[in-house]
Structures are given as structure tokens and as C-alpha cells.
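Help wanted!
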Amino acid sequence: MTPNHSDSGIGSSVSRKEDRKVLLGGSKGVDDIPLSDALHIQFIRSEKAHATFTVDATNARDVSGVVAVYTPDDIKQSETTTPNPFTLFSAPMEGVPYPDDSLRQRSFAEDKVHYHGEIIGMVVAETQRIARDALDEITIEYDIIEPVVTPQEATADDAAAIHESVPDNVAFEGGQGDRDLTDEQFENAAYTVELEKDAQRVSPTPLEPRAAIGQYDEATEHLDIIATTQIPHAYRRLLAQMLEHPENKIDVTVPDMGGGFGARQHPYPADVLVGWCAVDLERTVKWRSTRTENQLVENDGRGYEGTWEIALSEQGDILAVRADIRYDLGAWIARGAASLAEAGNLLMTGLYDIPAAYSHVTGIVTNTARIDAYRGVSATPMLMMLERLVSKVAKKAGMDPAAVRKRNFVDPDQFPYQTAGGAKYDSGDYERNFDIGLDELDYSSLRERQEQLREEGRYIGIGISCWTEVAGLGPCGHIDVATWGYGGVQVHPTGEVTVYAGSSNHGQGHETSLGQVASHELGVPLDSVTVVENSTKEVTEGVGTYASRTAALTGGAVAKSCRKIVRKGGKVAAHETGVTPDVIEFDDGTYYPIDSPEDAVTFSEVARQVHMGADIPEEMEPGLEEQTYYDPENCTWPFGTHMVVVEVDPDTGEYDIDQYVATEDCGVQINPAIVEGQIVGGIAQGLGQALYEEVEYADDGTHLSAPLRDETLGSSGGYTVPKAEHMPDITIKSTTTPSPHTPHGAKGMGESGTVAAPGAIVNAIEDAIEPFDIDPMTPPITPEKVWMAINREGKE
Amino acid sequence: MHTEQFSYHRAESVKHAVELLETSDDARILAGGQGLIPLMKKRELTPDALVDITQIDELRGIERTDDTIRIGGLSTHREIADSALLKETAPVVPRTVAHITGGQQVHNVATIGGNIARAHPGYDYEGALLSTGSQIVVSGPAGKQRVPVSEFVRGPCSTTLAETQLVTSIEIPVLSGDRRGGYAKKKEPASGNAIVGVATDLLFDDDQSTLVKSARIAVNGLQGCAVRLDATENRLEGKQLTPDRLEAAADDASSSLDSSAVLDNKKASAEYRLCLLEPQVQKSIRQAVGERTLYSQT
Amino acid sequence: MTVEKEEVTVTVNGESHVVSVEPRELLSQTLRERMGCTEINIGCESAICGACTVQSDGKSVKSCTRFTVQADGADIRTVSDLADEGTLTDIQQAFTDEHALQCGYCTPGIVMAVDEYLDHNTDPSREEIRNEALQGNLCRCTGYENIVDAVETAAEKLD
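Answered by r_m:
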């Protein structure tokens, strides 16, 4: 049987099915669900980063309309089981044990707070406004402990311990790769470069603030949660563990959600307490965070600081890379945080055939909110540093940065390619992809022009960054949670199709793209396919959407279910036409015997027949519905090249991005328009990291980056989410190197922009101002920093 | 998200507004609310009462009376940007509006009176009003007063406005001749507020002339209050404008400034603010000069 | 402190309402909680994200930065009122044609701002779209490029 094609199938940039509802104003988020008698929760949160405390809620209890106030004692003394600590996704890396149990986050602080914003209790009232007013009636007395806000402070000799059982504030440490070989390669290198990096925490900042509703039915003991999560099924599982409530008596639904970017996975302490409170009060309770509250507690991304090094031979071969990383985890180890150390290490050699690599990561707790997944995860710092190093070592050796990259790429015939960092890349054709970018820029002419312009006192720079990521995560058994893709497909007797997807759609267009997969496989029009997602009630299972996994894994599972359906239908068609199934062809929604195409049976006719159960092969069950738990043999490894041209004004340090070309390869694209949308959106976040974004804590641990616009005198002005005026026009090019192991050759593509853009932009700016003999820049690169670098004191 | 409670009073007239301000311990004026409401939502401001002045007709309108342009305090950024009268008689003021942050949604409701009364160093009107020699007209229990903008703003977010007073209008002296304006600004990226904003008010005889009859150039965002750039002005005033002279005037921008008063904070260091001054002065003057052809003098 | 409630008359998407509100009630809260206009989204607290943008007497405003009492007598329009019996306007159509929305949280506000902007500037450059038309709105998903394309496309159609 051959794959089927239609106008709306794989490869078609059809308009999204999701859009109409949004444009007509019909989207419904958590905060938009009409609830008749919900109570409203406001959390009592610590204003201090490190302190013991006592709380007096007497006055708040007396506020009219307040239904309950929970201090830590109230929660512990309730008949409802106190929530268990959070669990971790995985150990930090192979051979490194799980961190101490005391570092697993608690849902609320009992007598000591560990970061600004930690939950101390909650107020439950008839309206949100009453609950908010009552918060002001609560008195908290703090006994301040010296906070440790940065990894450096946390590991100083006299640093206060955040958690008693971890006196040195080191949660874990370990290395990946061959340390001895790497050291040896460095000793034999002709050229080496070393670069330092700040932790630069950035905030995912989905535009919709976090929210959750808990509804508890006393009679059935059923807990219904409506929440902002990218992983509803896994969220349910965790909630069940933490609340000690049967998993089959919890449902999690995610209505339309305003972004996630990795930060909306497992339940947060607030989410757990919403569920707990619904059970305790046997009522419907609702929490909707403000932007301030959201920024205060939602996990930041990155937090990688340390030293990265590269070694190059006389001929221009990269001999080794090495990194020594201090990883700021925040006050508790968030669920995914530890495993991100390994994920980053896997990528330490990027697209290059580097014989030796070693990365050592020390996970450190600080008195700050947690670090966890944010689009690009640890790939962003690892590849930004690698790409900066490649450019710098090339220049040191007097070679062209593009030429050194081309010389060192893994060749197409080396796949599957085992990296020195421990990854096994599935497929790639890096140079072909790279050359498209060079052609688009007219690279060699541009280098000549750069020289000419420098003579005129103008400074343009060309920045290159190649990237890959761990997409389509991944084969089961590697980490301590399930990582298959789930896709169920039901064919209605009318021939219409419902897809049940175990992923989560919050902007990625799954309703369209997964619909396209089914349309393609079954030969039915896209309009006949409905996609159901984001609900444990409607979808049997799922692992959720993160790690750029949906196209490959949910798409793959949906395809596999469709193929099972096509095979079953083929048996029916064979039965109907009196031939054996092996001579039945299926093409564009029609079955026919290969030798007598005139005896065709349509897919919908077969669907009706199987549903009725009449006149089908004897051993066959009625019904046309299949499900697949797709366990892939490997992750997928998309790749690409970002090339950026900037012009810097050396008098002021201001820069303009003149050109931005991203050449991407995510294997087979299901919907190229959606792919491009993901790339550009990711670039905006990567550009934010390169130029604007940085979460700021005061010396006393006060979080300062909550407002997106801050008029407080002397403040930074707010946390900069890039605006339209900050973005250049972007040119997208692509190549297609299919994954050899996913059903359609799709690889997934959600994170390329955030992984690649920072390195490309930083390289471009540094390239532009190279004649000024600058020290390496530290992102976010503000014009002032560029100006300072050019005009730093003591410079010749 | 939720402000604290306050009582709400709708003023019928300026006199009524003043009475309402007098009867409350801690009342605030509500006009466009674009600066006020975000602060109240964060409970950083918790007034007992708000006096809504938006129904007071006498605070509206932009009109010319003999030698003065009167901009009603309630005039929105949008009304000012679109005012043909202002474009003609005091173009630096509408030019400035294009740079005010927040987008058209803010421009549609935020007022010039509210903006100047907040006196935030990152806000933009102050330079334009200083360069045009404007007076802030305030009303209070003692009646109406005209305060030059240079006296009205005392420092960052601080004015001479008493708690019982409100800004009723801005008065800009009319000059005869061809008046041109420009505003150039370096923004802080999150807030969009000015790190340095330069307002230029130039007067020529006619639209061909390059003889500068008067040059008044002021910078906001640089120091706690907007400040005139005397040295730059002196290099231009009474002179034929040439490309060289324009550059020299901009080069000189900081020479008359008290550099110890330059703001030095997370948005920008004092050193960097001063570095930005010269190019922004150039941009601002060039915008004011417009299409006029400048000839080098040999 | 007990505060007297204020009676406010407001027309929302063609329907007149009289509501009695605390003075501190925000227009966004009234529209969302009393009139079910949940297409209005609240993405920030600092009047920057624009997700709550509605048109008040034809002018776009950030409804989270208005007290309901200020809207007495106003004619409010949200994105739900744009389409004519389900037929998308040129702007709405351009947004879907150009893939100008992802999660869609910012979209209703952006569409309302652009709807007003294109009344004033019928032929904007890409730079004007970035600097002016979209100045009052944030989007975290799209990187804006397709939104700029959509506004350009819509402007061409409206011409």
C-alpha cells in the first residue's frame, strides 16, 4: 500500500483550523470558564528570600467573604493529607545519583522560606477581590537568614546552607564524556580559546498568566482540575502521587492556553494546593495569577555559568571541547531541572565531528525561584558557547569561521553518528544546509564588503550559529518517566475521523498538523478530521508537548494508528471484492484490487461496513479505531544554520540587524507555514536572550523582574519581552533530511530559534567590532555594553 | 490586579475639582489614568479618593489666543499629534508624541496634563515644553497660577503642584516666523521610556531660510528634570545653519551641562547617557530642519 | 472602608447594560466577569501587553487600565463584534492567511488595535506597522513577522 496524498496532507501549508475561533473571540482559557459558585484563592507568598517566619492570619479570617485561611499549620493539621514533596523526572546524568531528598520541592514553606515568592499559605474567599484585600490583613514576621543569590555566593566558604542536609549547597555534580582524552587533545592543540559565561536567567513569560481550577465531588471523590499545563496526563499522575489521591479519580483538562514554552509542565506548588484545597473544602476553587505572581514563581530558564573551551589543530580540525559549568537550580530542584544537565551535555559537540569532549556540571541551589525547562533548555547555552568558540578559535588561527565549520561538519555518510558527548544523531546533511545560508548572504562578497566598509569607518559583522537539539524525546527507558508518543484514531461510520492526541496544543497548531497527518494517511479531507487533545477525560493517555516531540512522536503515533486502520480496512475491502488482502491497493481514500481497479471500495464505505460488523471477515472485530503508544528507536536531531548581519555604530554601541537568514532542516515538514512560524517565534525569544532579557535579583534576593514595564525610578525599566519594533525581517530557507526512524521522517522543530539565535547574534556583534580588540561580550548585549567594550578604559 | 478601595468623584468644573481635592486627605486626579492605574493595581499608590476630571469641558481643546497656544490639560496624546494648529505653531510638541510609549491605545486616552504632572524623567513632554518656553497653568484653592515648566518640575516624579491643585492647561508662546520642531529619543527597551530625549524648537523667517532666528533645545531623561542645552543653542542662534555648524552644535551639547547631575542607573550609566546626547541632538535638529537645504559655507 | 457603588451605563457589542460597580472595578473586569467578554485577555499589570484592547467609541484602549466608571456612556466593541455573521473581516482573514497567530492570547487585542490603526494609516510601511500599529501590544509566540505581513495584506485589501 502506498501513502496517500491530498491537498491538505503532509507538506501542505494549509491555514490553521484553530484560527477562526480565536479571531471570532471564542477562545476559552482557564480564567474564561464560567463557574457558578467557585471560591477564589490568593496565595500568601514570602516577601523575603531566606528567612524563618511566623504568620498571623487572625484579621484575615475575620474579613467578610473570606471562607478559609490556611497557614502552614492549618494545612498540616487538616484531615486532608498534606501534599508529598515533588519528584524528579530523572537523575542529573548517567552515573550521578538522585540529589538529596530534602531538595525536592515542597508545596508550601512550613517555617522557613527559601526564595522570594514561596507559598506560605492561602486565603480562600467568595471573590478574588475579597481574597486579595484579605491578603493585606495578614502579618508575617521574618527572621532573616543571609541569602545566597548566585551560585558563586552559594558555594563561598561561609555561605549559609539553604537546606540543612546539603550544607555546601551543591545538589549534584558529574561529568559526561572522556575527560582524559579531552585533556590530552587540549595539550596537543595548536590553538585553544576559553570563554566565560554568566548565568543569565531568562523568563519564559507565556502571555497568559498561570491559572488553575479544582472541582471536587464529595460523592464520587472525583477531582477535576482545569489548568495551564503542557502535559495533562503526566500532570495528573504527579498530582495523584502528591495528593495521595487515586489517579483514576483525577481528571485534568487544559482549555485554550496562552503559550507554554516549557515552563508549563508539571504542577507547581500553587497547582497542587488548588487541588488540595478543593478536596479539603469539597468545593470548586479557582486561582488565577497576576503577571507579577507568574513571573515571581514560574521557572526561569538557563542558569548556566562557567567556562567553555575549544581546541583546534594547526590544520583547522576541532580536536576537543570542554566545559566546566555551575548550574543555578534555584532554591529547590524542579522536576525537570536535573535532567537538563545531561540534555545539554549531549549537545556539546554540535554539528561537528569532534573526537573528544567533556562537560562537568555542578548543580547549585540558591535563594531564588527554580530553574527548569524553557524552550531551548540547556541546548541554548551549550550551543551558544560552542558556536562562539568555533568563531573565535577560527579567527585566532587566521581562518574563516565559515570555512572551519565546513571542514568540521559530520559528513552525511557518518550517520547514525555517535558524538563524543554521548548522543547518537539520526541523520544530517549539514554542509548542504550551511551552503544555502552562505549563498543567501553572498558570504564571500559580504566579507569583502566588510573590509571596505571598515576603511570608511563603518562596522558590519557576520554571525553564524549552527544548531541541533534533542527533539522527539525519546526512546523509553532512558529517563524515569514514560516518553512514548500517544495517538488514537477513530473512524466514524460516516468516514469522518477523530484523532485523540496525547500531546498539548497551545499555539503549535496541532489541530491542523495532526489533522494533516490523518488526512494524508487515510486519504480523507482535512475538514473531515477532528483532533481532540489536552484532556485526560477525552484522550486515553499522553506524555504531553515538550522537547519538540509532537511532530515526530504524536504525529508518528497518529500515523501508525492510521496505518493499522488502513490495513484493517484493506482486509474488509479484500473480503468485499473477493481477493486476498495482499493485492489490495489503497490510494487517496479508495481501496481496489491491483488487477481490477474498477472494483474500488471507498474508505467511508469500508468504515460503515466495519462499524456495522456485517459482512466483514469472520475473525475480525467490528469497529474502526486504533491506538498507538509509539516508542521511537532514537530521538530526532534536526539542525540548521542561522546567519546574521549587523551593523554597529561604534560611537554609541547601537546596532541594527540588517539581515537574518535561518536555514532549517527538521526532516519532513508536515505544515511548512507552521514550521516557519515556530522558527521565527523561537528567534524572537533567542534574540531576547541575546540582546534584552535577564532576570534580575537584588542582593537580598528580592526578585526584580516581575513587571514587563516598570516605571520605578532607578529600575531597569522592566523585563523586556521583545516588541515588534525590536525584530528584524527574517528569511527562512530549508533543506529536508528525513529522520530514518520516524513514520514520516519528521523530526520536530520547536526550539531551533531559541537555540541558534543567541550565538548567531552575539557572533555578529563581536565580529562587527573585532577591529576594536574587544573583550568577549556577555549577553544580553545592550548597546551600552558594546559601547563600553569599544571604549573601555586603558585600551590603546 | 485589584486596587484598594477608593471613593470616586466626578468633577463638574475646575472649581468643583478643587473643592473635591480639598475635602479629601488623600485624593488623586483621574484623567487618562495610564500612569496612575498601573500603580494603583500594584497597590503602590492607595489614594482614598479619585477625582475624575474628564467631564470638565474647560480642560479640553487646543486653541490660539493672540500670542499663546493653549492646550487643555485633558488633551490626549492623539489629539496633540493630530493637531494642525500645533503642527504649524509649535511642531516640536506633536513630534514628541510619536515617541511616547504604550501605543495608540495609550495615546487615545493619556493626557498632556497627566503626563507633565507625573514628571517622570522617562516621559517625553517635558523637553518639548521646556524648549517652547511653555507655562503650566494650574488651578487650586488660591486660583489660577502660571508656572514655567522649568519651575514646575522639581525633580524625578516631583512637581510644585500642591495636593489641592490640578494642571488645567499648557500655554505655549507663539513666535512669528517659520517654526520647526524635532524630537529624537533613545528608548529603554522594556518601558519605552526615554534614556535621552532631545526636543528642538527652531525658528526661521520662512521655509527657505537657513538663518536660525532662535534655537531652543532641551533634553529630558538625561537628568532628573529636563534641561536646556545652552551651548548648542548659542552655536545656532542668529547663525546661518550649515552642516558643519549643526554638527559642531551637537558636539557641544554636553559642554554647558552639569555632568554631575546626569542620571546614573540601571537603564543607562551617566557616561553612556552623555555619549548618546550628541547623536540624539543631531537627529533632533535634523528632524527640525527637515527638507531645507543646508549649504556649507566656504 | 465601605464605598458607594456607581451606576454605569455601557453599550457592549451593540447591547446596552446598566451595571452597579465598585469604583475600583476595571473595565476589563466588568467586560469579562459581567458581560462574558472573555475574548479580552489579561497578560500584564503594567499597561504594556495590550491583550485587553477593546475599542471605546471607536478608539482602541487597554481595558485593564480603565475603571468602569470612566466608561459611563461609552460604546465598547470587542473582537467578537467584528465579523459579519461569521464572515471574517479583511484583517481577521489576513491573520489566518498569513499564520499571524499561534497561541492566540494576544490576537483579539492586536486585531482591535490594528482595526483602528488602519483607519488612520491606510498604507503603512513595515516599519510603521512595527513601530506604530503594534507599539501597544506584545506577542510571545510569533516573533511578529507574520503579524506584520497580515497587517500589510489587510491594508492592501482595505485600500
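OP: Thanks! One thing I noticed: The two ends of chain A are 72 Å apart (CA to CA).
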